[in-house]
Amino acid sequence: MERINKSHPEEFILLGFADHPWLELPLFIILLLTYPMAMVGNIAIILVSTLDSRLHSPMYFFLTNLSFLDMCYTTSIVPQMLFHLGGSEKTISYLGCAIQLYFFHIMGGTECLLLAIMSFDRYVAICKPLHYTLIMNRCTCILLVATVWLGGMTYAVSEATVTLHLPLCGHNTLDHLICEIPVLIKAACGEKGSNELTLSVVCIFMLAVPLCFILASYASIGHAVFKIKSSEGRK
Q1: Torsion sign, CA atoms 147, 106, 63, 123
Q2: Nearest 10 degrees: Cα torsion 219, 223, 226, 228
Q3: pTM of the predicted protein model
Q4: Where does the chain cross the membrane (predicted)?
Q5: CA-CA 20 to 30 A from 179: which of 68, 107, 160, 218?
């Protein structure tokens, strides 16, 4: 613990738009307007999906989780960005940076995986409608969501923990508005090539695999819809 305290500063200086300070006010206004709107919209989706029994279906169950994720995802960074853009204080404590790092990447990783699951739900609903209720039953939906959260947490905790243990050699300046893994790796000293390579591989996996799954699902949906239209045309 003593070694970690010596190699890590008590706080970080976030440079943000230090080279373009005129951008701070417009961005502050945009975030100040859009953040409450996004929160209200997501809360409305959660309440309507929960209170209306007609919406108790797998699609709205996943949508509720997505809205909750969006709220947590934006809340992990936007309030801190507003604080820094609207004030003269441009620092964040080491603990605050670590907390933001974990939450930001947990929510981001989980959201990528959840979008893939939602595309699978639509694939089953359209391409296998007779088996939809059997495949996408409540237990399956809960299991899928739990797996998605576990996957996002595993990704974030492993990557963030390794990054936070990189020696910074007293460097406490981050050229960004928030604490992110690539920014901390860039600020670290010593050998960090393996960390950069690992981060690249994991990020490609977390982005490319869900994206391919989503594209494959909607390609299958498009093919099924095209077949239906072709059959109707022949009639």
Answers
A1: negative
A2: -130
A3: 0.85
A4: 25-48, 60-82, 102-120, 141-158, 199-226
A5: 68
